[in-house]
Amino acid sequence: MGMGQTTVGVIDNNPLYRAALARLVTDAPDLDLCAAAGSVARFVTERRCANCLVLLDFELPRPRGAAAVRAMTGLGHRVLVLSAGTGQDDARAAMAAGAVGYLDKSAEAAEILEAVHQVAVGNRYVPSSALPARRHIDLSDREVDVLACLAAGERDEDIAGSLRISVRTVRSYLDRIRDKTGLRRRSALTRYAIEHGIIAPADHLTAS
After folding, report:
1. pLDDT for the residue numbered 127
2. Which element (helix H / strand E) includes 6?
3. Average pLDDT over residues 17-38
4. Is residue 185 part of a domain?
5. What was the pLDDT predicted at 5?
6. CB count, 10 Å around CB of 116?
7. Is the CB of residue 35 less than 8 Å from the CB of residue 17?
8. More reliable by pLDDT, 178 or 92
9. Is residue 136 included in any domain, yes or no?
10. Do 90 and 190 fall into the same domain?
11. Burial letters for 144-154: b for 16+ Cβ neighbours within 10 Å, e otherwise?
12. Which residues lie below 8 Å from residue 85, measured CB to CB, with a gap of 6+?
């Protein structure tokens, strides 16, 4: 693998789609194909990398769905789910299980590559069509901004820098969010943000 490249694995039960994804990765100059397999078990056997970004079919035979996501994240891989399923339900289940991104299998090659590049640099990727349209009405706009940054994996200090407020103010907002949602842990707040469509695109995090 060359310098600056992202190592990508492919797990998909459909041989044609799997081959297309593998070719897409192989042809990208900044991506390196780790392995392409039809199941989690086969991927574990064939992989030649310790940690990579896995393009994972959500409709695999056992393990499938959220269980397959957890199996991959448990091995230290990041997971970008590709699903032919029902959009919002699969997206919520995938992200709650630990995936860093979600795409419908109807996505064009350019969008798949964009999603790979986004999650490779630490962002999450979920298209707006896969998210619930309404946000939680009890959160103020600023609380939504803070929660979006938290869901994107930012620390308190990072959120303060992104939103140009003090760390103390960030923590005050987080206290209010916790009081309103009844959730204390960051993982639970992240899940809440995903389920309510509060996801920050990369450009939102740097907006003034």
Report:
1. 77
2. strand 6-11
3. 93
4. yes
5. 85
6. 22
7. no
8. 178
9. no
10. no
11. bbbbbbbbbeb
12. 58, 59
- pLDDT of residue 200 exceeding 90, the answer is no
- Answer whether residue 110 shows pLDDT above 80: yes
Q: Are residues 83 and 167 in the same domain?
A: no
Residue 87 lies in a domain: yes
Neighbours of 129 (CB within 10 A): 10
User: Residue 190: which of 157, 134, 150, 146 has the closest Cα?
Assistant: 150
Instruction: Give the mean model confidence (pLDDT) for residues 90-105.
Output: 84
Radius of gyration of the chain (CA): 18
Q: Write down the pLDDT at residue 129.
A: 65
3-state SS record for 104-127: ECCCCHHHHHHHHHHHHCCCCECC
Residue 130: the pLDDT is 64
How many structural domains compose the chain?
2
The whole-angstrom separation of Cα 61 and Cα 68 is 9
What's the pLDDT score for residue 174? 94
Of 36, 65, 39, 59, the residue nearest 49 (C-alpha):
36
Per DSSP, helices labelled H in the chain are: 15-27, 40-46, 65-74, 88-96, 109-120, 141-151, 156-163, 167-181, 186-195, 202-205
Question: Do 152 and 179 fall into the same domain?
Answer: yes
Mark residue 197 as left, alpha or beta (left: phi above 0; alpha: psi -120 to 50; beta: remaining). Answer: left
Structure confidence at residue 203 (pLDDT): 32
- Evaluate whether residue 1 is within a structural domain: no
Asked if the model's pLDDT at residue 30 lies above 80, the reply is yes
**Are 88 and 173 in the same domain?**
no
Query: Which pLDDT does position 166 carry in this prediction?
Result: 93
